Amino acid sequence: IRVPADKSITHRAVLFGGIAHGESRLRNPLRGEDCLRSVDVLQHMGVRIEDRGKEFVIHGRGLHGLREPGNVLDCGNSGTTARLTCGLLSGQDFFSVLTGDDSLRNRPMARVTEPLRSMGARFMGRDGGRKLPLAIRGGGLKALDYVLPVASAQVKTAVLLAGLNAEGETTVTEPEKSRDHTERMLRAMGAAIREDGLSVTVQGGTGLNGLDLTVPGDFSSAAFFLVAATLVPGSELTIENVGVNPSRTGLLELLREMGASVRLENERQVSGEPVADLFVSHSPLSGIAISGAQVVRAIDEFPILCVAASMATGETQISGAAELRVKESDRIATMVSGLRAMGVEAEERPDGMQILGRQNLSAGSFQSHGDHRVAMSMSVAGLCARGTSIIEGTECVATSFPGFWDLLRSVQRNSA
Ligand code: S3P
To answer: pLDDT value at position 254?
Structure first.
């Protein structure tokens, strides 16, 4: 099978392409609702983006070429659109307002507005500028040396984007290395960027060249099928053309530690990102302890990892993962309640959870809580349960994985 294109890379290519000088070509973009929010936001600022079927062509307007939007910019469910756009708008000498859906309006924004304010951008918003809707007046930025309290690729990227428009050198230092698509892409676009361990520095004022990029399949989407094939007896599955950037593939190591069998084949580089075909077959799993440093490289995969843990022998302990509470839903609470409804003994912890695997899950009815990854994870849990499970609120799956249900049906049919 193949899974849809990478969400993080598509967002970045669209947003960075919008402030590049000249044309960018983006082959195999993700047309999930989240990425279409980034497209829409840029179009409202005067960027022409052509959808030519297999590719997007983005007519960049340069670092200072965006136009004041005539209306509120709606980021929908997408935290990446909202936070990266805050960075982009901080460098623009005009007024704009960002909002989003019910989930996004409750997610923390101070993590971006605080460093961007100290660069000189002005934000007004709910809760003192901690929540959307946010009004932004950008321009006149000075460089910043910023140490992130929590590893976050979105915050890192927002500050670096603002740094492109600031006077001097802006440095961002993380406690652990988060996904590095921004660093790779900005370098490919000719930005003056350097990395030194956990720090990244950009020189303000140097423009970006257009980009020519092919987006690989999203490892975070492949994750649901990696776990499904691991859990369902008799399965063998090859997932072709998946991005395997090491800052994203923590789940592979965790699953292998639990006993899974996943092989990388045909490893290659595509547009500056490592790509491979993943071959996975059914294996019994054992519980493990997961903490701190392992968390950031698997941050979006915890919902599906919880399902793997619920089918493993023994206990799985997750700690150092408080960030899960501020994702599209509180993923510690939503996954614990979903798994409990299947008869699994699971307990919340402030920064993680404890799951006692039980192999025989009970079918039932579950809520997605509007969270795409929870909906897809609970559907994989449903595959493992005896009887029919119902997952309510599945529209959200379209934010990251158009075609998920058809693909899931197709692998079941092949095995019949
Ligand atoms: C993302 C970064 C991560 C991740 C999110 C996508 C990105 O969030 O959870 O789904 O594309 O930069 P944080 O930056 O909050 O860690």
So the answer is: 98
Smallest CA-to-CA distance from 321 within 293, 345, 346 is with: 293
Q: How far is the centre of ligand 1, averaged over its atoms, from the C-alpha of 364 (Å)?
A: 31
> Which residues are near ligand 1 (CB < 6 Å)?
8, 11, 80, 152-154, 157, 178-179, 299-300
Compute CA distances 121 → 124, 170, 176, 410, whole Å: 10, 14, 26, 49
Digit-coded pLDDT (tens) for 38-74: 999 999 999 999 999 999 999 999 999 999 999 999 9
pLDDT, tens digit, 9 for 90 and up, residues 157-172 = 999 999 999 999 999 9
Rounded CA-CA distance 276/268 in Å is 6
Distance between Cα 154 and ligand 1 center (Å): 5
Distances (CA, A) of 65 to 20, 22, 32, 60, 394: 9, 11, 27, 8, 39
152 alpha carbon – ligand 1 mean position (Å) = 6
- Atom 4 (ligand 1): residue with closest C-alpha? 300
Whether the full predicted model's pTM is greater than 0.85, yes or no, is yes
312 pLDDT higher than 60: yes
Ligand 1 atom nearest to 12, measured from its CA: 11
Rounded to a whole number of angstroms, the distance between the first and last alpha carbons of the chain is: 16
Is 413's pLDDT higher than 70? no
pLDDT, position 414: 57
What's the 363 CA to ligand 1 centre distance in angstroms? 31
Task: Give residue 359's pLDDT.
Answer: 83
- Pocket test residue of 299, 305, 327, 399 for ligand 1, highest count of atoms within 8 A of CB: 299
Q: Take atom 16 of ligand 1 and give the residue whose Cα is closest.
A: 152
Distance CA 192, CA 27 (A): 25
300 has catalytic annotation: yes
Q: What is the pLDDT of residue 293?
A: 85
Q: What is the DSSP string of 71-139?
A: S-EE-TT-HHHHHHHHHHHHTSSSEEEEE--TTGGGS--HHHHHHHHHHT-EEEEHHHHTEEEEEEE--
Closest CA to 272 of 193, 348, 325: 193
Annotated active-site residue in 300, 330, 351, 371: 300
Nearest CA residue ID for atom 3, ligand 1:
153
285 in helix, strand or coil? coil
| Residue 170: per-residue pLDDT | 98
| Residue 253 near residue 305 (C-beta atoms within 8 A) | no
